[in-house]
Design a protein that fits this description.
This protein is mostly helical. The protein has one helix and no strands. The longest helix has 17 residues. The relative contact order is 0.04.
């Protein structure tokens, strides 16, 4: 038995699809130059002035994250003895 297709889901999806198209289609603008350069006709551009700084090393602390149990490799028993000898 064939059930006729209900137009309700289509009516619910169509506005959402239109909103998404309006949002994302302007992002597909294709009039940018492929080389990434501006449309300047001047082939000899003026060099840009830049500032340089000397690199310095800054020490930072080391952090160790441990999950689980941290146990000693060797174990010993420490106790107190009285000062008298037998």
């Amino acid at each position: 038995m064939l059930i006729p297709h209900s137009p309700k889901p289509l009516r619910a999806i169509l506005p959402a699809a239109l909103v998404l198209a309006i949002i994302f289609l302007p992002a597909c603008k294709s009039d940018y130059p492929a080389s990434g350069k501006t449309g300047s006709s001047d082939t000899k551009s003026v060099p840009r002035q830049v500032k340089t700084v000397k690199v310095t090393e800054t020490p930072i602390g080391e952090t160790v994250t441990v999950n689980g149990t941290l146990a000693a490799y060797d174990q010993t028993t420490a106790g107190q003895t009285s000062g008298t000898t037998g």
